[in-house]
Write a structure and sequence with these properties.
The structure holds two protein chains of two kinds. Chain A is mostly helical. Chain A has nine helices and no strands. Classes of the chains: A mainly alpha, B alpha/beta.
Chain lengths: 220, 256
């Protein structure tokens, strides 16, 4: 076995990898922002919406959770233009990931909603808050605290899923790594460094989420 | 005679096929303190919760200061008022719950302030001042910035009472507010309620504290199987119950 590790080709293109990582993070952040809105709306529908809305929300969650995300990405990217919708590949990917993560976030949020004690809502009603004020001032803040641990793992999955954007040539981390791989033939080195970047970023995200959890912890 | 503060006429409520309130009629004057007693399942808590629309009711009318609560009559039949209108009416009464139901993510002061800011549209500074004032009144001035998890049950219940009273309700509803407390904490909560009664606050209390009902209330209502079984002056009723049912109930309760 005469393979000697030589990282020089990787270091030379390291800024490409970092640029890719940055784009990965941006994709995840954009998808999370939209996905969280979808997830919240769907969770409220699932947890107490009128029947037609609850059914529609349930159908959305079931459909998305039974579709491989890669199929969804390719479907959106190739099928939408056929239907006359013109969006670029980054928008197409963010949209797909948002719809995809929305279904998972909806389940996370729904569990969180169910964990808010009924008495808290009743106390809110009793002082004259409207249902919307109860949602924003009581249910959301309590629910978010309850779901932070599972939100953390959803966020990490979401970030890792951005690597699938390589399939439609979005220049994120995995795409850039493959390009360097093809150009330099330093296969092991490229994927070692890329893996390290993913692992390190996930560790940072998890640490940030834990810090947020501690910050929002209710004093006891 | 003055217009009554609260009028309940023919109040009926079903949970599915089970009728829990079978036509309750009752009138309450401004400044009265009425205790509602009765065995569990007699409908006393349900009746209380209908007054602030935490429970829907299917028939009858509840008038608070002459205003029909929760529903309005239409040519096409009875209709529930809008959420906004129901919310406004709920703020006319204050309620304290058996399980306190404080907002766990807010300090004692913030618990009291929330309704003042969101419902009464009061500025934060003014609301904070009022909150501190009421927390002081229930003996918790030093606990204003403590969270519910840092307070004892009795302290939590006193914050909950301050939260309700600060809204300046026309009528206070107390739903078994001492039932979830350790015996040694019951006194501090009853003391607060006694103080409010002495100041002329109109109150309806669902309670198991017979001694307290006897001492504090101007009138007692005995609920039995979804109707008012007996009502009157506690000094009279507790000593000489007119009905067999009340006599039995008093025998099994802690009052002696």
């Amino acid at each position: 076995m005469g393979y000697t590790l030589n990282f020089s080709a990787v270091w030379r293109s390291f800024d490409l990898l970092l640029g890719g990582l940055l784009l990965s993070l941006e994709l995840a952040a954009a998808a999370l922002a939209i996905g969280a809105v979808i997830g919240l709306a769907v969770a409220f529908a699932l947890a107490g919406g009128p029947t037609p809305l609850r059914r529609a929300a349930g159908a959305y969650v079931t459909l998305i959770r039974n579709l491989p995300i890669l199929v969804l990405i390719l479907f959106t990217y190739f099928a939408l233009p056929q239907l006359g919708v013109r969006i670029d590949k980054i928008q197409s990917f963010v949209l797909t990931l948002a719809i995809y993560s929305g279904a998972y976030l909806a389940e996370v949020f729904r569990a969180g909603l169910l964990s808010v004690p009924r008495g808290v809502k009743e106390a809110g009603l009793a002082i004259g808050l409207t249902p919307m004020q109860i949602r924003t001032s009581l249910i959301l803040p309590l629910m978010l605290r309850n779901v932070l641990p599972s939100l953390s793992s959803t966020l990490i999955s979401l970030f890792k899923d951005t690597s699938l954007a390589a399939a439609i040539a979005v220049p994120e981390l995995t795409f850039e790594a493959r390009k360097i791989n093809v150009e330099s033939f330093r296969v092991i080195e490229v994927w070692m460094v890329t893996s390290a970047l993913y692992v390190a970023t996930c560790a940072v995200l998890a640490a940030l989420m834990r810090a947020l959890e501690r910050r929002l912890a209710i004093p006891k | 005679m003055n217009k009554p503060l609260l009028e309940i006429k023919g109040l009926r409520k079903w949970y599915g096929a089970v009728e829990v309130l079978k036509g309750v009629d009752c009138t309450m004057a401004q400044g009265e303190v009425i205790s509602i007693i009765g065995s569990s399942g007699s409908g006393k808590t349900t009746m209380l919760r209908c007054i602030n629309m935490l429970e829907e009711f299917q028939d009858g009318q509840i008038l608070l200061d002459g205003e029909a609560i929760g529903y309005e009559e239409h040519p096409s039949g009875r209709r529930r008022k809008s959420e906004k209108e129901v919310a406004r009416q709920r703020a006319l009464t204050g309620m304290a719950f058996q399980q306190f139901n404080l907002f766990p993510h807010m300090s004692a002061a913030q618990n009291v302030m929330l309704g003042l800011v969101k419902v009464k549209k009061m500025g934060r500074d003014e609301a904070r001042t009022l909150a501190e004032q009421w927390l002081g009144r229930v003996g918790l001035a030093a606990r204003a910035d403590h969270y519910p998890g840092q307070l004892s049950g009795g302290q939590q219940q006193r914050v909950a009472i301050a939260r309700a009273i600060a809204m300046n309700p026309k009528l206070m509803l107390f739903d078994e507010v001492t039932s979830a407390l350790d015996p040694e904490l019951v006194g501090e909560v009853l003391q607060v309620i006694k103080g409010l009664a002495a100041e002329g606050m109109s109150m309806l209390l669902v309670t198991h504290e017979m001694r307290f009902a006897y001492e504090v209330s101007s009138r007692v209502i005995f609920m039995n199987k979804g109707v008012i079984g007996e009502e009157g002056d506690p000094k009279e009723m507790f000593v000489r119950p007119r009905t067999e049912r009340l006599a039995e109930f008093l025998k099994t309760s802690s009052f002696q």
